[in-house]
Write a structure and sequence with these properties.
The chain is α/β, with parallel strands linked by helices. The protein is built from 17 helices and 12 strands. It folds into 2 domains: 248 residues, Aspartate Aminotransferase, domain 2 (3-Layer(aba) Sandwich); 133 residues, Aspartate Aminotransferase, domain 1 (Alpha-Beta Complex), CATH 3.90.1150. The strands form 3 sheets. The chain has a 7-stranded mixed beta sheet, sandwiched between helices. Bound molecules: pyridoxal-5'-phosphate.
Amino acid sequence: MTGPAAPGGRAASAPLLGSDTEPTVFELSVPGRRAWSLRTTEVPEVPVADLVPVAFRREDQVELAEVSERDLVAHVTRLSHRQFSVDLGAYPLGSCTMKYNPKVCDAVAALEGLAGVHPAAPPSLTQGWLSLLVELERALCELTGMAAATLQPAAGAAGELTGLLLMRAWHQAHGSVRHRVVIPDSAHGTNPASVTLGGYQVTTVPTDERGCVDLDALCRVLDEDVAGIMLTNPNTLGLFEEDITTIARKAHDVGALLYYDGANLNAILGVVRPGDMGFDIVHMNLHKTFATPHGGGGPGAGPVAVAERLAPFLPGPRPVALEPDEEGTARFGWTVPPQSIGRVHGFHGNALVLARALAYLLVNGGDGLRRVAELAVLNANWLRTRLRGTFDAPYDRPCMHEAVLSARTLRDRFGVRALDVAKRLLDEGFHAPTIYFPLIVDEALMIEPTETESLQTLEALAQAFERIVAEAAASGPAEAHAAPHHTPVRRVDEARAARHLVATYDARH
Ligand SMILES: Cc1ncc(COP(=O)(O)O)c(C=O)c1O
């Protein structure tokens, strides 16, 4: 139900919670309304025309919504109730590590002394920020077993591209012309995309029957044309690559570098380090592992840590600890590594994500981080064991932080596909798991419960999955095909939504 029409024919108030539609903020707009107020001062008003050079002035009118703070808050709050979030309940979206994040990390990121600083402020005014960045870099290097890191990349994929550019710079500096990067067929789509963007060709290696890289196949493609191998460990089947030290040795034997996609770092925190496995370049997804929920479209951070020999190539400028002053006070500044590949982000990356990550690391400490990994693995195995009779278990052995099951039999017997299970799960009050990834698993259901869910929540989630399967067995696929039934937006045509994306609202129509 919309409210009475306001002057100009626009709705003055929006539907209440639970309604099917929410107007856009432009539809709520009433000329002259403001969401801010400034007290009057003695300072004379300067006409905009005197402040902005002619060349930079707009010629047309900016069509901005005009709403009061009260209407705006109500609108945004209603919108927030129309979607599922990590703060609302379990979000077992495999490969994305959507875990509950402690609010203290947000409180730290909101501190005026951090959030209110202009990124162009000079080091003399930003010693606190610089010390934070230096401490974060040290902590990430310690956790991954690497020597140095850049905090600039904006997300995992940006970290991958940075890593590939580092790989390229390293080989060029050694006079070595190489064309190929090897990735397993279970890899995330960003891996081959980054390889291509980095100017290399992709060579794919198959997965063996245990769900790991097929070592014989890998050996057949490894030669001195290979610049590097990209792996995530545990891999996207949630399984630990047991031959990782052999793979590292074989890569290094042909002069290739080993790249670690840190998407699955949550599984091994404080237990084992990529550096000790033989990796040379490691990206981390701070927005998965360290306190900024991934997947909401907000900013992320994908720091890249490297072995000592690659540190001279890192993007710059990098924050560094300088010699203390005469009174022994610590001082910090910026440095550009001698053979730097250049900048990969404006300023210093998504700085408030970095602040949240350091808060998360300090709140948990070494023992706490190890416990994060242990509980993430325990929870995934609890669900895997519970559901391996309900769905197919293509790689039926203990997993790490996520369990990859399959709805193949459910599809073949009752016509219910992984997509239908995912949609029906929304009706049960849970977010859907990742589906159809990794690509090598037919009707894949990739379930990552994370360490933050209790045994009671896991039990409820398992029962929800079981109910969906029981419903299909008892009364066929109709309910699942029509799901979700109880969400504000029902089943959308995802292909059309992606192909005919309408990302802006045109107020003139
Ligand atoms: C295995 C893996 N690698 C890379 C990425 C890319 O990370 P981002 O989304 O931060 O770019 C993801 C994203 O979920 C992933 O699951």
